[in-house]
């Protein structure tokens, strides 16, 4: 499919599944190397990162602990800046190496909030793995440790990412088409 429509918006194919998988494989190799000798806790950030987390875990294929947490900040097609913790991490993180798995970093406010919480809770090390990164939108002093793909500041859907809760199940990533194009 080259184009999809979700509610009032049109999206065009942007990143095919094959490229996404390749990026995740590359991340897995680096993560595996870096976590050697530690007992990491992987945390998938819901809802958006569910597909990325599943793929990354299958690539790691190891004896690691996995849990999920849920935050929300987006309204429609832009970041609200206000972070809601809907489901906290329900595993003690004190002394642990925590690897956060996020779908996309835009302004950085969500991950800054989560990383601060983890540090305050006594995590020994916090690593941030994000499938997608919009470097030009970043408003925090945050440097992701693992980035799948860097992209321009366009609104995208698919592979876990939604527009008003629709579009998460597409296997490819689509970019918004501005009206008139
Ligand atoms: P931040 O706090 O970095 O601004 O935003 C992070 C969250 O906003 C991500 O976890 C993601 O859920 C959402 N987000 C950011 N950019 C996009 C985008 O282009 N498309 C969608 N669907 N969600 C996005
Ligand atoms: Mg997210």
Number of domains: 1
What is the highest CATH level, the class? Answer: Alpha Beta
Bound molecules: guanosine-5'-monophosphate, magnesium ion
CATH architecture grouping: 3-Layer(aba) Sandwich
Unreliable stretches: none
Q: Beta-strand percentage?
A: 35-45%
Euclidean distance between termini CA atoms: 18 Å
Q: What's the mean pLDDT score? A: 95
> Structural class, from secondary structure content?
alpha/beta
What's the main sheet like? 6 strands, mixed
Enumerate the strands of the largest sheet in spatial order, edge to edge or round the barrel.
Answer: 5-4-3-6-7-8
Q: What overall form do the CA principal axes indicate?
A: globular
Walk me through what this model shows:
By secondary structure, this protein is of the alpha/beta class. The protein has a single domain (3-176), classed as Rossmann fold, CATH 3.40.50.2020. 23% of the residues lie in helices and 38% in strands. The protein has 3 helices and 10 strands, in the order ββαβαβββαββββ. It has helices at 17-34, 50-60, 109-120, and strands at 3-6, 9-15, 41-46, 65-75, 78-87, 97-105, 125-133, 146-150, 156-157, 173-177. Strands 5-4-3-6-7-8 form a 6-stranded mixed sheet. Strands 1-2-10-9 form a 4-stranded antiparallel sheet. Helix 3 (109-120) links the parallel strand 6 (97-105) and strand 7. The longest helix has 18 residues, at 17-34. The protein starts with a strand and ends with a strand. The model has no long low-confidence stretch (mean pLDDT 95). Residues 45, 48-49, 102-103 line the site of magnesium ion. The site of guanosine-5'-monophosphate has 19 residues, from strand 4, strand 6, helix 3 and strand 9.
């Amino acid at each position: 499919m080259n184009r999809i429509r979700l509610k009032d918006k049109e999206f065009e194919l942007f990143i095919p599944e094959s490229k996404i998988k390749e990026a995740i494989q590359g991340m897995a190799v680096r993560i595996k190397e870096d976590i050697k000798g530690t007992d990491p806790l992987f945390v998938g950030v819901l809802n958006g990162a569910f597909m990325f987390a599943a793929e990354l875990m299958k690539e790691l294929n190891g004896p690691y602990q996995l849990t999920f947490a849920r935050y929300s900040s987006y309204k429609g097609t832009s970041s609200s800046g206000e972070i809601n913790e809907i489901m906290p991490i329900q595993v003690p993180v004190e002394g642990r190496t925590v690897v956060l798995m996020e779908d996309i970093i835009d302004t950085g406010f969500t991950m800054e909030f989560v990383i601060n919480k983890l540090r305050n809770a006594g995590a020994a090390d916090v690593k941030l793995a994000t499938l997608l990164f919009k470097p030009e939108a970043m408003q925090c002093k945050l440097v992701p440790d693992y980035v799948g793909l860097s992209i321009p500041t366009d609104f995208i859907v698919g592979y876990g990412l939604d527009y008003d809760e629709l579009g998460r199940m597409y296997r490819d990533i689509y970019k918004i088409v501005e009206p008139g194009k």
